[in-house]
Amino acid sequence: MILLRRVIGDALRARRQGQQRTLREVSTAANVSLGYLSEIERGHKEPSSELLAAICDALGARLSELLIEVSDTVALAEQMPGVLVSMQDEPADAAAKSTNRGVRQVTSDGKVAVSVRQDSPLKATLRSTRVRPTERDRDVVCAA
Predict the structure, then answer these.
(1) d(CA 33, CA 9)
(2) Per-position pLDDT tens, the chain of length 144
(3) Beta strand spans in the chain (E)
(4) Cα–Cα distance between 87 and 143 in angstroms, integer?
(5) How far apart are CA 7 and CA 143, in angstroms?
(6) Which of 59, 72, 109, 119 suits 50 as a labelling partner, its CA being 20 to 30 A distant?
C-alpha cells in the first residue's frame, strides 16, 4: 500500500529542492513552522487542504499541478503488482527482471519509466522519470 502523505511530501520536497530553496524559506512564505513542513515532506504528517494550498503558493505552484503529479505517481504504483513484496518472495520471472541491489525497472506506456528499489520487505522506493523529458518535467521520488 502506498501512503498518500508520503507521495505528497516527496512531491513537495522535489519542488522545493528543484528551486534550490530551504525549508526555512518555504515555511516562512507559507506561514507554517519549519518543523511541521519538514514532517510533511518526510510523510510523517498529512497536511490539510488549506495548508497544502499555502505551501503550493509559497512554492509558486498550482495546487492542481501538485495533485496531478501525486495522482500520476499513485496510479503508477497501483499498476505495479507486488511493489511491497520482499525480493526473495518474487516469482522467478519477476526476479529475472531485477537488477542488482533489488532495483527493478518498469516502463509504463513509453512515456514514463519507473524504477522500484526494494529497501526492505516493508519498504520500497519508487522513482518515476519521463522517458522523453521536456523542460517542465520533473523527477518524482516516492517511498512507500
Answers:
(1) 15
(2) 567 898 899 999 999 999 999 999 999 999 999 999 999 999 999 999 999 999 999 999 999 999 999 888 888 877 776 553 433 444 434 433 444 455 555 555 566 666 666 666 556 666 666 655 555 555 555 555
(3) 98-99, 103-108, 112-120, 123-130, 140-143
(4) 16
(5) 7
(6) 72
Q: Give me the amino acid identity at 61.
A: A
DSSP 8-state secondary structure symbol assigned to residue 61? -
What residues form DSSP beta bridges with 16? none
Please provide the distance, in angstroms rounded to a whole number, between the alpha carbons at the two ends of the chain. Answer: 7
Reported residue count of the chain is 144
Q: How far apart are CA 111 and CA 37, in angstroms?
A: 32
Phi, psi of 115 (to 5 degrees): -110, 140
3 to 41, 77, 98: CA distances (angstroms): 13, 11, 24
